[in-house]
Design a protein that fits this description.
This protein is elongated. It is an alpha+beta fold. It is about 40% helix and about 30% strand.
């Protein structure tokens, strides 16, 4: 009788051991998949593989949310805590966001901050007045270029 109990106990222990080995194998597999996923995320964050940015951004004004194509934006002008977004169809959207928040939103697109108060889309530039440190944008928009940003801006124009 004691021998029978020891045999059944040994069988139970062997079954539990097999179950634990299966769980260990499953856990190792999940950890391997998670490690691969983390490597992919790290590669994206370190920009080995650049992330494709959407051409459509959402702009929330006081009364509505607008979906704007980034290519339609001529410039963004700061006005204290507000930003005026000027579009190529002569529309102007006023948003209760700072210019720096738009700068980060438009990062990765071809925009350049020419001063503390202005971010421009260089594709809408018509004339650069070197003697006055000003640019003329489509829609007869004349903006001043900050002296500190002028050299960097000219380098971007060459490329």
């Amino acid at each position: 009788m004691i021998l029978l109990e020891e045999n059944s106990e040994t069988i139970l222990l062997q079954k539990k051991l097999v179950e634990l080995e299966k769980l260990l194998a499953q856990t190792k597999k999940k950890l391997h998949h998670e490690a691969e996923y983390n490597k992919q995320l790290e590669a994206i964050l370190s920009e080995e593989h650049p992330v494709k940015r959407s051409k459509i951004i959402t702009i929330k004004s006081a009364t509505k949310i607008e979906f704007v194509n980034v290519d339609d934006i001529i410039c963004c002008d700061a006005d204290e805590v507000y930003t005026h977004v000027r579009l190529n169809n002569s529309r102007k959207i006023t948003v209760a966001k700072t210019l720096s928040s738009f700068e980060s939103l438009l990062e990765g697109h071809d925009f350049f901050r020419i001063s503390k108060s202005h971010i421009i889309n260089p594709s809408y530039m018509i004339t650069l007045y070197k003697d006055r440190n000003q640019i003329l944008l489509q829609g007869n928009i004349v903006l001043d270029i900050a002296r500190r940003r002028r050299v960097e801006f000219l380098k971007i124009l060459k490329h």
